[in-house]
Design a protein that fits this description.
Length: about 290
């Protein structure tokens, strides 16, 4: 989700530079634009240009898995190809726009994940899941969820001349382009305070001393969970540089709201404001106003 705006901007620039401002009409050309995958490409070409491409999203997969009683993991390559082939086979030439929107609407409003409205479904007579299963909502098949690993992360709140140091994550990768207080993942062999001083030195070149431990924040990502340990830090020496991050800036407390922070660090800021309002976190007191 965080990368969509950047991909949209990159795609817009590429369309202007390479195609004179008009989105390309071929599947091969549109698919190379940043952020454009098979579903988005098919949706754009069918709806905007009336090209015969079936768009397969989660709603369509749900409809097809029940219609044909397919008990396969839709996230795997072979199943993805099968669902695409089935959708392509149902598509009538010249009607791709209506077909794609109807299939997505059917999945979103009738063939819902839980408690599908089978009695009013227009394709009920063809649906194998309805006729052969006691509960069609068991499809599409979802493999058992794996236990998500847990990591400890640290963050240092460094205040110098009434300004805080914040860093911007690399533009690509997890949480690309979002801002946060400097820090990183704790190694198994080090303490939390050692992790703070190490990660700040590695990412910004600053030497700091850890002071007050702040309230912890827990956050769950798709594939792992973290506990974020924040510390108020005292600046010792160095000039802030963007070493392993994309950017590093000193900002006033009121300027923090102008930057897009990751959710965990936003929660850390909120907690610190509440603590400051109670007089328990002096370093952040000016931001609580």
């Amino acid at each position: 989700y965080y990368a969509r705006a950047r991909y949209l901007h990159r795609a817009a620039v590429q369309v202007v530079d390479q195609y004179g401002g008009r989105i390309p009409e071929s599947i091969s050309e549109i698919s190379i634009l940043p952020g454009i995958g098979p579903y988005t490409a098919a949706a754009i070409l069918s709806i905007a240009y009336h090209r015969d491409h079936a768009a397969v999203d989660g709603n369509v997969i749900r409809v097809l898995s029940r219609l044909y009683r397919i008990h396969e993991d839709a996230t795997r390559g072979p199943a993805k190809r099968r669902f695409q082939e089935l959708a392509d086979g149902l598509l009538q030439k010249g009607q791709a726009a209506d077909f794609n929107q109807a299939m997505m609407e059917l999945g979103a409003t009738v063939c819902q994940p839980q408690k599908p409205s089978c009695t009013v479904c227009p394709v009920q007579c063809h649906c194998r899941a309805f006729h052969e299963l006691s509960d069609p909502s068991g499809l599409p098949y979802k493999p058992p969820k794996k236990e998500r690993p847990h990591h400890d992360h640290v963050a240092g709140v460094i205040k110098l001349d009434d300004k805080f140091l914040i860093i911007q994550r690399p533009l690509d990768g997890l949480l690309g382009g979002l801002w946060e207080f400097p820090g990183g993942r704790r190694r198994e062999s080090e303490s939390l305070t050692e992790a703070v001083t190490r990660t700040i030195l590695e990412s910004t070149g600053l030497t700091v001393k850890t002071d007050l431990a702040l309230p912890t924040v827990t956050h769950a990502f798709t594939h792992f969970k973290i506990t974020l340990y924040g510390f108020c830090c005292t600046f010792i020496k160095g000039a802030a540089e963007a070493l392993t991050c994309h950017d590093a800036r000193w900002v006033s407390p009121t300027q923090l709201a102008d930057f897009a922070f990751s959710r965990a660090h936003n929660r850390l800021i909120d907690i610190m404001k509440k603590e400051a309002a109670k007089g328990q976190v002096e370093i952040f007191a000016s931001a609580a106003k």
